[in-house]
Amino acid sequence: MDAFTTHTGIGVPLRRSNVDTDQIIPAVYLKRVTRDGFEDGLFAAWRTDESFVLNNPRYAAGSVLVAGPDFGTGSSREHAVWALMNYGFRAVLSSRFADIFRGNSGKQGLLTAQVAQDDIELIWKYLEQEPGAQVTVDLAARTVTAGDIVAPFSVDDYTRWRLMEGLDDIGLTLRHDDLIAQFEADRPAYLPVTS
Amino acid sequence: MAGTLAEKVWEAHVVRRAEGEPDLLYIDLHLLHEVTSPQAFDGLRLEGRTVRRTDLTLATEDHNVPTTPGPITDLISLTQVETLRRNCAEFGVPLYPMGDVEQGIVHVVGPQLGLTQPGMTIVCGDSHTSTHGAFGALAFGIGTSEVEHVLATQTLPLKPFRTMAVNVRGALPDGVTAKDVVLAVIAKIGTGGGQGYVLEYRGDAIESLSMEARMTVCNMSIEAGARAGMIAPDDTTFDYLKGRDRAPVGADWDAAVEAWRQLRSDDDAVFDAEVDLDATTLSPFVTWGTNPGQGLPLSASVPDPDRIVDETERADTERALAYMGLEPGTPLREIPVDTVFVGSCTNGRIEDLRAAADVLRGRRVAEGVRMLVVPGSARVRVQAEAEGLHSVFEAAGAEWRLPGCSMCLAMNPDKLAAGERSASTSNRNFEGRQGPGGRTHLVSPLVAAATAVRGTLSSPADLDKD
């Protein structure tokens, strides 16, 4: 995983709440067995609408998505994160993220920055007045900057540390292999097995 | 210290705890299906890692499988299923493939085998893993990176969830089912209301439910944004488990039941939040919009956006009604459907099929309505046929299918066409969930069957009036 410290890119205002993962990538696009190539499924249904924000050439190269509350609800599909990242997004701003989506994002290096809805509104207005304007997300300072707007965001300390270091979770866990083995030795005998 | 059920199960699975870091939690059962696992196995292969506990891992084929006889004809679906078979063979993971008597939807298979037991931690790369919480297990959906993590280590680093008590008190009126309860809960707390929480469903209305009904309730916890749903195990739970293939026997059974009886929230346990619902006021519930929180009693009418003060909610409602092709003020009972779907991990178990069959017995599916009945597993199908339920469905003009996820999500041949409207016992009414442009109303099996007969959203009570 690439380390994430700060990122600057075109901001994309997505004025919708409750963006579920079926909207981010419909099930029909989930059939690949690789982690790449999912960008064509990103917001597939909405992209058929000419007025959809990513169909505006000024926003098309966006890398910071600015969304309404409850982003990433529904299905656990990590394909939603891959689709966003394959398309080129490195950060999503929202006042509230669904738990599984936020967890998946942290594993892949997509920053989910929780920004107050009032600030989201200000950033939306700015990005709509200045299509193609840049947004800077500074993970070290935990701030997002868009024009004159400087807004704080929250992200939990552990995820921030892992993102900034670019650390692999499995490698970290395997350092505690002895503790896992010790736990396994003490599990009750009545617990079921699958084979 | 007094604890909640969720906290007790959590504490019993902590492998490592360190200041400023997530707890490392042991996972007792890891379920896999073909959609969210290929990239996880690929990750193992790239790093030269193995599956730590193949004996705590189980795979089944469900999302892509057709529900009519014959092989998978969609080449990409076939690749995904074949990839699962190859991965399971290579890494030594047990798999129930299409055609196997144990095959079915992953959340139907675990409980019916007796693999899902109280106090366990259960994960799957599927948000409806919350289903297994009906047994007092801590069960939750994970992403593919986490699937890889569990395959490699049988653990997950997790920050503790908050706890919410959902108290459902009083007796459920006739014709009101678990599905109506959970739709009412979601409408009450909203699609984000459970975010970060494990919901514990409590109260006499919950205690009176069968295991299958409890699974329906826990299944949809994720639709309220919750990580998991749980119900404390009791004699109903133990009776369901006893004698199942993977349930303990002899002295192990006695030891297990003794341990399971401790699995309840202490009387003085404090929840981070509490919600109360009066079961006696509930009636059959249906959704009108494009998220599971947009639901109302069947006796209500389509909401009027002009009467909504909150700007975001008004815009959401307008958008949902435009997508659903509904006019404000239309009585929900007058909405006609093209398709009725009975099945899914929410309502594809034997009791659900019995409930639908009871309504359909001696009646016909309305002209112009297509009804699909899809058992949640091969075992459910066998059981239903032994009881003659398939004959009831076929005599009524419904299609009796092979087990799979089917029309719950448009990943296999069972789909809605653009503009088609369904009454569906599944769990999500998102835009395009059942097919691009498809319109979904979430309902219970009883409402689904009555709707099939009348052709408009209906409850069995409406049939008695006809």
From TrEMBL, chain A:
<comment type="subunit">
    <text>Heterodimer of LeuC and LeuD.</text>
</comment>
<dbReference type="InterPro" id="IPR000573">
    <property type="entry name" value="AconitaseA/IPMdHydase_ssu_swvl"/>
</dbReference>
<dbReference type="GO" id="GO:0009098">
    <property type="term" value="P:L-leucine biosynthetic process"/>
</dbReference>
<dbReference type="Pfam" id="PF00694">
    <property type="entry name" value="Aconitase_C"/>
</dbReference>
<comment type="similarity">
    <text>Belongs to the LeuD family. LeuD type 1 subfamily.</text>
</comment>
<keyword id="KW-0028">Amino-acid biosynthesis</keyword>
<keyword id="KW-0100">Branched-chain amino acid biosynthesis</keyword>
<keyword id="KW-0432">Leucine biosynthesis</keyword>
<protein>
    <recommendedName>
        <fullName>3-isopropylmalate dehydratase small subunit</fullName>
        <ecNumber>4.2.1.33</ecNumber>
    </recommendedName>
</protein>
<comment type="function">
    <text>Catalyzes the isomerization between 2-isopropylmalate and 3-isopropylmalate, via the formation of 2-isopropylmaleate.</text>
</comment>
<dbReference type="GO" id="GO:0009316">
    <property type="term" value="C:3-isopropylmalate dehydratase complex"/>
</dbReference>
<dbReference type="InterPro" id="IPR015928">
    <property type="entry name" value="Aconitase/3IPM_dehydase_swvl"/>
</dbReference>
<dbReference type="InterPro" id="IPR004431">
    <property type="entry name" value="3-IsopropMal_deHydase_ssu"/>
</dbReference>
<keyword id="KW-0456">Lyase</keyword>
<comment type="pathway">
    <text>Amino-acid biosynthesis; L-leucine biosynthesis; L-leucine from 3-methyl-2-oxobutanoate: step 2/4.</text>
</comment>
<feature type="domain" description="Aconitase A/isopropylmalate dehydratase small subunit swivel">
    <location>
        <begin position="1"/>
        <end position="117"/>
    </location>
</feature>
<dbReference type="InterPro" id="IPR033940">
    <property type="entry name" value="IPMI_Swivel"/>
</dbReference>
<dbReference type="GO" id="GO:0003861">
    <property type="term" value="F:3-isopropylmalate dehydratase activity"/>
</dbReference>
<dbReference type="InterPro" id="IPR050075">
    <property type="entry name" value="LeuD"/>
</dbReference>
TrEMBL record, chain B:
<keyword id="KW-0411">Iron-sulfur</keyword>
<keyword id="KW-0408">Iron</keyword>
<dbReference type="GO" id="GO:0003861">
    <property type="term" value="F:3-isopropylmalate dehydratase activity"/>
</dbReference>
<dbReference type="InterPro" id="IPR036008">
    <property type="entry name" value="Aconitase_4Fe-4S_dom"/>
</dbReference>
<dbReference type="GO" id="GO:0051539">
    <property type="term" value="F:4 iron, 4 sulfur cluster binding"/>
</dbReference>
<dbReference type="InterPro" id="IPR018136">
    <property type="entry name" value="Aconitase_4Fe-4S_BS"/>
</dbReference>
<keyword id="KW-0432">Leucine biosynthesis</keyword>
<feature type="domain" description="Aconitase/3-isopropylmalate dehydratase large subunit alpha/beta/alpha">
    <location>
        <begin position="7"/>
        <end position="455"/>
    </location>
</feature>
<feature type="binding site">
    <location>
        <position position="345"/>
    </location>
    <ligand>
        <name>[4Fe-4S] cluster</name>
    </ligand>
</feature>
<keyword id="KW-0004">4Fe-4S</keyword>
<dbReference type="InterPro" id="IPR050067">
    <property type="entry name" value="IPM_dehydratase_rel_enz"/>
</dbReference>
<dbReference type="InterPro" id="IPR001030">
    <property type="entry name" value="Acoase/IPM_deHydtase_lsu_aba"/>
</dbReference>
<comment type="pathway">
    <text>Amino-acid biosynthesis; L-leucine biosynthesis; L-leucine from 3-methyl-2-oxobutanoate: step 2/4.</text>
</comment>
<protein>
    <recommendedName>
        <fullName>3-isopropylmalate dehydratase large subunit</fullName>
        <ecNumber>4.2.1.33</ecNumber>
    </recommendedName>
</protein>
<comment type="function">
    <text>Catalyzes the isomerization between 2-isopropylmalate and 3-isopropylmalate, via the formation of 2-isopropylmaleate.</text>
</comment>
<comment type="similarity">
    <text>Belongs to the aconitase/IPM isomerase family. LeuC type 1 subfamily.</text>
</comment>
<dbReference type="GO" id="GO:0046872">
    <property type="term" value="F:metal ion binding"/>
</dbReference>
<keyword id="KW-0456">Lyase</keyword>
<dbReference type="Pfam" id="PF00330">
    <property type="entry name" value="Aconitase"/>
</dbReference>
<feature type="region of interest" description="Disordered">
    <location>
        <begin position="419"/>
        <end position="441"/>
    </location>
</feature>
<feature type="binding site">
    <location>
        <position position="408"/>
    </location>
    <ligand>
        <name>[4Fe-4S] cluster</name>
    </ligand>
</feature>
<keyword id="KW-0479">Metal-binding</keyword>
